[in-house]
Amino acid sequence: MRWFGGFCNPTAPPRAPADSARPWPTTPGLWTVGQWAGEEVRTMCTGRRFVAVIGPSGIARRDLARLGTFGVPDDVAWRWPGSYTTVEVTDEFTRVWTDLGGAWPVYTTAADGGVYWASSSRALAGLTHTGPNVDRLAAWLLAPSVPVLLAGRSAFAGVELVPAGHRLTVARDGVVRTNQMWSPRPRPGAADHRLRAELAAAVAVRVVAASAPTVDLSGGYDSTALALLAHESVGPDHAVTGVTVCPVGHPSGGDLDYARLVAERSGIAHRLMPLDADHAPYTSLCAVPVTDEPAPSTVAHARFSGQLHWMRTTLGTDCHMTGDGGDSLLCSPPIMLADLLATGRNRRGVVETIRWARLRRLPVWSLLVSAYRTSRSNRADALARLSVELFTGVRKAVPKGDIGWCATDLVPSWATYDARARAAAVASSVPQRFPEAAIGMFAATVAAEGIADVGRSARADIQLAETVGVPLHNPFTDSRVVDAYLSIPLDERPGSADYKPVLRDALADLFPAELAARTTKGDFNPDHYHGMRTNLPELHALADGQLAALGLVDPVELRRTLAMTAAGLPVPFSTVEPAVAAEVWLRALADAPDVVWTPVAAGEEAK
């Protein structure tokens, strides 16, 4: 597993990671772990300043030299294409800038008289042998669709998360400061042209060094855009392979037809990976390796790992891109309706509410009332109400499709009193940790938090891919891509009922007309129901496990919920999948040894 980090203390670090750590000889107290491609770790040491840019980036050598000479500006995270973390070390301080999309999360913990920081929360937890952060776990289980509850928190007790788009400063005297460097800032200009340029640059950063790049080609906008831009980037003399998964014996229909159409029109090499019963959701969950937090692909790990192994052995993949993050970034959240009303754009607010109501088959008047109420309130009040609902387990009656800050399902019946109390405490603490969103920026704020949540959690999937030997990338979480899209002014932002029109317009010359006219994606719920029914005995066995031991889950109620879901009864997957993923992760964590840290002799770190 690849990660990087360092130690801040007036003296040499008393401990360093023992497993394949590579100290940086010019700067004591910094290291990388695992195998890194040369272009992913770029360093510059000039006088008493050391600068490192870690991760895929488009920074030029002259720009890196300028950082080493003059220091690092606070907009460094979105100056160049790619997804990277920037580190600056001087005699006075260590500073770390996190990317906007959360793709390289940075964590901190206090130990050995100083501050350790790293891109792996599990590695830092190995320093003090701390267990999972039960409060964060409870909040994620009960309100998985409210990412602000997790902001600043890692999956481990005593390990803090530096939020996306922030600067961490650790002074030599041990004082730690975290400051927000970026927030969405509207600016004029052709949004589609800007998105096209930044997405193309993000793709080019990846494929330029790859010999066998592959891309998910699922038949939707996001993955198709990446595949077409990759094909355009490498030119006619090199191949980009689009990979589409499909059930055995069903080589056509639905998403597959769109994927095949794109490949035929563009000349992209197209390969189908057939899925059989062994790839069904909820299959072989005991084989999921340990990661920094529950991986998004946990319940689909059989398919995910099967595809990775197949691509590695069959195609020799050395760079694989997915469209993860596209939905969170490119689809305007419904709270945009409140933005319009709060800023006096009443006519458009009514029109967009009617369009959203028709799309979702919801009553217009109740949506308008809900949007108006949210436009006149703040998130602190919404979080206070959420805290009460989580604690009591009873959600206040709201119209279907409520337009608000905290769109959550009912508290699951299997949640214990302790789980509800912990989640409620987390919700009530958020307003003290983060400022209110500005009027007119509700949707942009929610989207920024959503994409950062996707990027951070996707790091766990990237860690799973690393165990197979496949470098996995999600360009929609790149800083400049995020900044380009979230800078669209409110008057130009698509409505919530629109299906990614900016991306469609940005790729108008590459998208086939049939794909550009598409407004939906395939439904994978039938596969999940089938997988649950097939693996129900194993899922029932998970109920009496780590979550129950932590006091978060009533195993009897969880088994009942699993049985109801498998039978097709109306139980939201959001009350099932997080519990399954968390239990699988906790068991993998319990079975895996801690990351080992060893004392460092004086001068050893500088060898």
The strand count comes to: 19
Order of strands across the biggest sheet? 3-4-1-10-9-11
| Number of alpha- plus pi-helical segments | 22
Tell me the fraction of residues in β-strands, as a range: 5-15%
Major pleated sheet? 6 strands, antiparallel
**Structural class label:** alpha+beta
How far apart, in Å, are the first and last alpha carbons?
23 Å
How would you describe this structure in keywords?
607 residues; 22 helices; six-stranded antiparallel sheet; 19 strands
Summarize the structure.
The protein is of the alpha+beta class.
Would you mind describing this structure in some detail?
It is a single chain. This protein has 607 residues and is of the alpha+beta class. Helices cover 41% and strands 15% of the residues.
Describe the secondary-structure layout.
Layout: E1 3-8, E2 15-17, E3 21-23, E4 30-33, E5 41-46, E6 49-54, H1 61-70, E7 85-89, E8 93-97, E9 106-111, E10 114-118, H2 121-128, H3 134-142, E11 160-162, E12 166-171, E13 176-180, H4 191-207, E14 213-216, H5 221-234, E15 241-247, H6 255-266, E16 269-275, H7 301-315, E17 319-321, H8 326-330, H9 336-342, H10 346-360, H11 364-375, H12 379-392, H13 417-433, H14 442-468, E18 472-473, H15 479-486, H16 501-506, H17 513-516, H18 525-534, H19 536-543, H20 546-549, H21 555-566, H22 577-591, E19 597-599
Parallel strand pairs: 14-15, 14-17, 15-16, 17-18
Antiparallel strand pairs: 1-4, 1-10, 2-19, 3-4, 5-6, 6-7, 7-8, 8-12, 9-10, 9-11, 12-13
